[in-house]
């Protein structure tokens, strides 16, 4: 009973528990074959969801209605920008990464300016921006055949004792994000705005500046994610970020962050990302068709969210 109460108070734990159960079910089906390789692959792929998931988490924590739907288009454009700037040369890796970061940050900043200037809901502003960004990406990246520099491609796939180096670096990044959320003025301001935006304003929080920084942060993380994806998959693609629209939101909610705002959990993003990747692996291993796979994925995600006992969006 004490354990159940403890888990109820930490809904993000369910994401890790779900990932573990899915992994156990898969290795039971395969007779234990490929268990270690499955974990390595899950860590490699979960990294990309975690990076954009953290950015989405900060945005959603701002309160009801705040969400960044421009991430897939952002990722696609940033991947093309990074590959064009790097031009296959190892000497241009840092410059390419900075270009992708700047591209994503600019998109995030424009997203908030649309919200602020036009007084439209974030869901409408970011969705509208995504169509514009995608159009630019199609024009800019059309026929792009540039491969990532060999050193960059090797880096995104580098492993130490079976553990992806990119996953280790992302763990350090998420630790920093957790510290920023709980210990720094910026993070506490985000939580305060999500809990009660008027009270935060009366307490002296610069609401506009914090929201601007948060959307810019989400965009910047989408940009760097696009560059890393291009390196990992050996090239840029307009559709390279498509799966991260729902995934970035799902890992936030499954991970224990409240869609009502004011409450966030960084470790839960990791657990939820691993859960989603391992879930897809399990369904593929079972030979489930694409249509049924999507249906089961949706039902299982709803089940995990329900089990986590997350707060309702309406307070």
UniProtKB/TrEMBL annotation:
Q: How does it sit in the membrane?
A: Multi-pass membrane protein
- Which superkingdom is the protein from? Bacteria
One family from Pfam that matches here is BPD_transp_2
Q: Does the keyword Amino-acid biosynthesis apply?
A: no
Q: Which keywords does the record carry?
A: Cell membrane, Membrane, Transmembrane, Transmembrane helix
Task: Give any GO molecular function from the UniProt entry.
Answer: transmembrane transporter activity
Q: Which GO terms describe its cellular component?
A: plasma membrane
Q: Where in the cell is it found?
A: Cell membrane
**Could you tell me which InterPro entries the record lists for this protein?**
ABC_transp_permease
Residue ranges crossing the lipid bilayer per the database entry? 12-35, 41-62, 93-115, 122-140, 160-181, 212-232, 244-262, 269-286, 292-310
Q: Does the keyword Acyltransferase apply?
A: no
Q: Which CDD domains match?
A: TM_PBP1_transp_AraH_like (cd06579)
Name listed for the protein in its UniProt record: ABC transporter permease
């Amino acid at each position: 009973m004490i354990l159940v109460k403890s888990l109820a108070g930490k809904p993000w734990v369910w994401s890790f528990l779900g990932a573990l159960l899915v992994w156990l079910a898969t290795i039971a089906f395969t007779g234990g074959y490929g268990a270690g390789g499955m974990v390595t692959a899950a860590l490699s792929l979960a990294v990309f969801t975690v990076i954009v998931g953290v950015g989405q988490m900060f945005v959603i924590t701002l309160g009801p209605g705040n969400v960044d739907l421009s991430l897939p288009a952002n990722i696609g454009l940033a991947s093309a920008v990074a590959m064009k700037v790097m031009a296959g040369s190892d000497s241009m890796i840092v410059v390419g990464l900075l270009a992708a970061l700047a591209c994503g940050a600019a998109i995030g900043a424009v997203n908030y300016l649309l919200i602020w200037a036009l007084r439209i809901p974030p869901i409408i502003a970011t969705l509208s921006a995504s169509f514009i960004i995608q159009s630019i990406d199609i024009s800019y990246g059309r026929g792009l055949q540039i491969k990532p520099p060999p050193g960059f491609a090797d880096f995104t796939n580098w492993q130490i004792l079976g553990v992806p180096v990119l996953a280790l670096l992302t763990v350090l990044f998420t630790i920093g994000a957790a510290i920023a959320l709980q210990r720094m003025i910026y993070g506490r301001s985000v939580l305060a705005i999500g809990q009660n935006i008027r009270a935060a304003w009366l307490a002296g929080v610069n609401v506009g500046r914090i929201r601007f920084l948060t959307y810019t942060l989400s965009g910047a993380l989408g940009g760097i994610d696009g560059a890393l994806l291009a390196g990992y998959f050996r090239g840029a693609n307009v559709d390279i970020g498509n799966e991260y629209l729902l995934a970035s939101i799902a890992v936030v909610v499954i991970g224990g962050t409240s869609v009502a705002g004011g409450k966030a959990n960084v470790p839960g993003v990791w657990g939820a990302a691993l859960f989603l990747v391992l879930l897809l692996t399990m369904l593929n291993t079972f030979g489930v068709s694409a249509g049924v796979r999507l249906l089961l994925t949706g039902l299982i995600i709803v089940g995990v969210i329900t089990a986590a006992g997350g707060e309702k969006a309406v307070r």
